[in-house]
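Objective 1b. Sequence-to-structure analysis of Exopolysaccharide biosynthesis protein.
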Amino acid sequence: MQNQTQTRRAVRDIVAAIDARARDEDEIRIEDVLGSLGGASFVPVLLVPALFVVSPLSGIPLFSSACGILIALISAQMLLGRDHLWLPRLLTRRHIAGDKLRKATGKLQGIARWMDLHTKERLRLFTHRPFRWVTQGACLLCGAAMPFLELVPFSSSILGAAVTLLALSLLVRDGLIALFGLCFIGLACGVGYWAVSGTLAA
C-alpha cells in the first residue's frame, strides 16, 4: 500500500479526505477509507483507525476490535521497516454505513482543528530513534489489547486516544504529544485494573 516515508500533513486534511470519500455513499469499505489518503505514509494510515475508536463509530459492536487489529498490524510493519503496507482483506472489506461515517467525521473536525492548532515541532528527541521504536511498540500493544478490552467501559476509547496522540506525535514531530500519549496508556491500564478488580470482588 503506502511507503513509510514521513509525510507532514494536517489532521484536518485527513478527516476532510475521509469525509469527502464518504459523501453520498450508503456504505463504504475500510479499504476505501484508507485509500482516500492517496499516497500518504504509514503514519496517517495509523491515525485513521485510532481516530475511529474515539469517534461515535466505536459504538458499533466489534468495530473497536477491528480497529485495534488494524492498529497492531500497521504498527508492527512500521517497526519492521516495511516499504509497503499489507492489511488482510477480511478486515479492510468490512463496511461502514455512510451516514455513520459522515457523522463521525463531523465530530472529529473539532478534534482535528484543535490538534492542528496545538501541535508543533518540539522535543524532537522523542520522535526519533530509539524513542520512535518505543512509540511504535506502544501503538502495537494498544492495538493488540483493544479486542480484549472492548467490554471494559472506556478502555478502548482511552487506548484509541493514546494511539491518536502517539501517531500525531510522529506526524508532526511533537515529542510532548508522545509523552501525553504514554500517559493515556497508563490511564487505560488503571481503568482496566479497576474494572477487573471490581469484577473479581463482586
